[in-house]
Amino acid sequence: MPVDEFLNETERMLKTADARGVAIKVCGSVGIFLAVRSDPIASNLYAWRSDATSPRVSFKDLDLAAREKDASAVYRLFVKDLGFREDRETNALFGAFRNIYYHPRFQVDVFYDTLRFNHEIPIRDRLLPGLTLPLEDLFLGKVQIHAPPDKDLIDLASFVAAVPLGKLDRAYLARFYGNDWGLWYDSETNLSAVGMALDKRPAIAPDVRDLVQGRIVEFQRFLRDCPKTRRWEKRRARGTKELWYEPVDEVR
Prior knowledge:
alpha+beta; two-stranded antiparallel sheet
């Protein structure tokens, strides 16, 4: 689906939701693109997520965040108002925290109250004005993924290229990182892996690599220095001998 058409459809969904009084925000990879698209370096970098040899921006699905108390209204919006098909099995089994709907040309995932992948990021009170979740939640939603594929690492690269740490609410981030060693560990690991994903794309300019690497170091320094709770310290002592993330099977 052409990018402009996909984004127009996304905005149509959100405008219809807003007219119905339903708070829905874009998250995931599309959310990151919307957040960085005005930055030429970051938006060009984002185009490398799909292919290591021929960059282009493309979308296959759409992740949205909403409140679980609005689930019935979300159903009416997508099925009754917009004419989408629902994934009845998934919605029956996991409807308290995730719904899937099918636009004629792509899949729509709606996450309720929490971005629940390998760690949990509460977002019920984070549906603020704008198309997307706040920058902090876009970052946490992406960096929390355990053993991410290269496309997610390129998302992180494009995010940090456009958003230095100073643009984020560091106190908000520190509340997660200072209390949850598992999230901290996966985030540190993923930030370290961004450079390897860039190395697989040798056509990316050296100055762009240097920019991203400098920002990565900045984020890693923040992870290292943010105050840690006793709970964090106790969990660090056990390390990877115990599972530190929630395994998630892909729901399709």
